[in-house]
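Schema walk-through. Below, the input block comes first and the output block second. Nothing else is stored per chain. Lengths vary across the set, and this one has 187 residues.
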Amino acid sequence: MLHLFIEGFVLQSIKPNDSLRKQINTFSVLKTFLQRKKMKPVIHKAHTCDIPTLNKISVASKSYWGYPPEWIKKWLPDLHLSERDFSTQSIYKLDLGGSIIGFCAIQENKSNYEIMHLWVLPDHIGKGYGTLLLNKSLKKTMTRIKDIIVEADPNAEAFYTRHGFSTFDKVASYPKGRFLPLMKKSI
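--- output ---
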């Protein structure tokens, strides 16, 4: 009998008399696992054909924080990218093993760069992908020395603080009485 162990767990056992289909399936699972272990995140320029996927990511990521569905629905115009955004923002996607797992959109204004979007799928939050995406996107976008600002979700304030941003103001949001931290990083 052959036991297939992955990260300390018996994933599947195959016996010499098992069907060829089961044996092939077992080795297919192992191959997929090993490929994913070798996967390296890659950041590419996003394209308008990515809009549906990117919009699903922003909604899933925002929903991760437990906001009520009616709030998410109200925020959809701010969460969604449009074709127009691609003419005014530098938009990068984070690819992991052939799947887009996050994106960052940065707009250059006269006196600063503004992070318009930074989203990572919930299964990948807390694993360093947001940091990688933020740093690489800024590096690819910034051609001049200017401050960087972001109107952050309150749940992301600590993330941005860890990356050198400080809160300098707040912006009213939905629902009434909710405020978003306006944060800045001076370069």
